Amino acid sequence: MSIVLPGEKIPAQHVNLKLGPGLSQTSDASTANSPSIVSTRAGTVNHSSNKSRWWIESNSRRYIPATQEPVIGVITQRQGEGYRVDIASAHNANLDGLAFEGATKRNKPNLKVGNLVYARVSLAHKDMDPELECFDAQTHKAEGFGELKNGFLVKCSMRMCRQLLDPNHFLLPLLGGLFPLEVAIGLNGRVWINSKEPKQIIAIARALEATDPDGGGLNELGVKAFLDKIDH
Q: What top-level class would CATH report for the domain 70-148?
């Protein structure tokens, strides 16, 4: 990882390159054949293991929407045929009532203020409010997106949420071996968890907070010792 400032060029190249938060593609006459990737914020450069996805990690507390990213939103208002949704960004997002698997004008979810939804950012533009969809872009199936019922919402650092989406990260397999576990991870600093009993949900939430780099920052051994002290 390297630290960059706004405007610096990033050596991001891949046949299926996807840019995450903090990166932008620029093109001009001199770079028409090979557009440049530049940073739009200060932070550390990160990429996936196969280098297909790149992003800038910073200590920002406010989520900056990026297309295709999963987020957990809170319904704040019903408007017309859709909803306004708080996704922890500068502006609330729009969610169309038909943006769910199999939804029609006669058959669509009836969400209320305060309900949680797991959604995908379908539009992210600096001059427009973000837009959300509750289905997979390729299959148009729910694929886990939609209303999140019951459970508990944990707020984490955005860095922690990205780590949890890494299949090689230790925490979720560790917790899944101890408790019945349902989880939805939003890259906007929110994690929804559910389990069989309230005390198990509490233990999972505390383990998440203890592992967060902005919290306890515990490693696998530390989390195991931490969980041993909790009556689960």
A: mainly beta
Instruction: Collect all residues with Cβ–Cβ distance below 8 Å to 34 and sequence separation of at least 6.
Output: none
Ranges of beta strands (E only) in the chain are 3-4, 18-19, 23-26, 36-39, 43-47, 53-57, 70-79, 82-86, 93-100, 116-125, 128-134, 146-148, 152-155, 182-186, 190-194
Could you write out the DSSP letters of every residue in 115-137? -EEEEEEEEEETTEEEEEEES-T
Extract the tokens encoding 195.
């389990």
15-27 exposure pattern, b = at least 16 Cβ within 10 A, e = fewer: eeebbbbbbeeee
- The answer to whether 115 touches 150, Cβ cutoff 8 Å, is no
Whole-angstrom distance, CA of residue 46 vs CA of residue 56: 6
pLDDT single digits (tens) 188-223: 999 999 999 999 999 999 999 999 988 888 999 999
Fold of domain 3-57: OB fold (Dihydrolipoamide Acetyltransferase, E2P) (2.40.50)
What the block records as the tokens of 154 is 């944990």
- Residue 15 zone, left/alpha/beta (φ > 0; ψ -120 to 50; rest): alpha
Q: Give, for 176, the enclosing helix (H) or strand (E).
A: helix 171-176
For residues 173-191, give the mean pLDDT: 95
Tell me the C-alpha distance between 171 and 210, whole Å.
11
CA 32 to chain centre: 32
